[in-house]
């Protein structure tokens, strides 16, 4: 099955398959999302950043950054958000990054998330985002250490 599959069709295939493995075999092409490390790597190319510069901009220790890019560590939600800003991602790309990292999407009913959504939508710089969060009494994305 190589044709595009609608979400409704996917539900039917999954529910009617004898095993989850069989459904995965049938739908693998439709659900194969890039792994987190691969996605970050693609964005590093788009942003024309080398890895050490990316780690510095995102406030991630080099050793941890290399483990993340090797797929050996899963970063926390705030680290992923910092990465999104370091890579100049838009909101949709940042939401995908969070999903691939196993974290919840930014939610507009959350005051802190609302600030982050606004910042991503307006291509804000990470330092400006930190300042805005601080002004509003919201938790920083990192301590700046």
Account of the 3D structure:
The protein is mainly alpha-helical. It is 63% helix and 0% strand. The protein has nine helices and no strands. Helix 4 (51-58) crosses helix 6 (77-86) and helix 6 runs antiparallel to helix 7 (91-100). The mean pLDDT is 91.
Note the total helix count.
Answer: 9
Question: Stretches where pLDDT falls below 50 for ≥5 residues?
Answer: none
Helix content: 55-70%
CA-based shape = globular
The computed structural class is mainly alpha
Let me know the number of strands. 0
Series of secondary-structure elements, N-terminal to C-terminal: HHHHHHHHH
Main beta sheet: strand number and arrangement? none
How far apart, in Å, are the first and last alpha carbons? Answer: 51 Å
Overall average residue pLDDT: 91
Question: Beta-strand percentage?
Answer: under 5%
- What is the CA-based Rg, rounded? 18 Å
Offer a few descriptive terms.
globular, 9 helices, 145 residues, mainly alpha
Topology record:
Blueprint: H1 7-16, H2 20-31, H3 36-47, H4 51-58, H5 62-69, H6 77-86, H7 91-100, H8 111-121, H9 126-135
Helix pairs in contact: 1-2, 4-6, 6-7
Summarize the model shown:
The chain has helices spanning 7-16, 20-31, 36-47, 51-58, 62-69, 77-86, 91-100, 111-121, 126-135. It is an all-alpha fold and 145 residues long.
